[in-house]
Write a structure and sequence with these properties.
Elements: H1 2-20, E1 25-30, E2 37-46, E3 49-57, E4 84-91, E5 98-105, E6 110-119, E7 124-131, E8 134-142
Antiparallel strand pairs: 1-2, 1-8, 2-3, 3-4, 4-5, 5-6, 6-7, 7-8
């Protein structure tokens, strides 16, 4: 009986640890210059692909009815709250990395190649946007 309970506890703990090493969940984006929390993003998974949408704008000086004026695709002039900014990322084989997707910066309307890497046990997420060899990495923080 003790062995069975130990196995159940181990499997439960292992599954929760694996779930935390996924980008799926809610994240706060942080302004790189001021350190201020900018927005909340909800990342979901369907059929092995990740999508991520802005669920809240958190900066005090941001208009809540803001639209993406500079977007050039189906998101042009659409509200930023509810906007899907991550599309098509998939898990790299044998790694805790999601790549081959795209991420939109709604502030400038540009779309970048995407790489997502959970770090610190899944408490943070490295979000790398790039065009060719050039890019930048942001660190998002998981919310509850």
């Amino acid at each position: 009986m003790y062995l069975a309970w130990s196995a159940i506890i181990f499997v439960t703990y292992s599954l929760s640890a694996q779930a935390q090493m996924s980008p799926v969940g809610n994240w706060h984006t942080v302004d790189e210059k001021s350190g201020e929390v900018k927005s909340q993003i909800r990342i979901s998974e369907a059929n092995g692909l990740l999508t991520g949408s802005i669920t809240k704008l958190l900066r005090k000086d941001t208009k809540q009815d803001q639209v993406c004026e500079q977007c050039t695709d189906d998101r042009k002039d659409k509200p930023i709250i509810g906007m899907q900014i991550i599309r098509g990322a998939k898990k790299a084989e044998g790694k805790d990395v999601w790549e081959d997707g795209k991420i939109l910066d709604p502030e400038n309307g540009k779309t970048y190649g995407l790489r997502l890497t959970p770090i610190e046990g899944g408490k943070k997420l490295e979000v790398r946007g790039s065009i060719g060899p050039f890019g930048r990495t942001q660190t998002w923080v998981r919310t509850q």
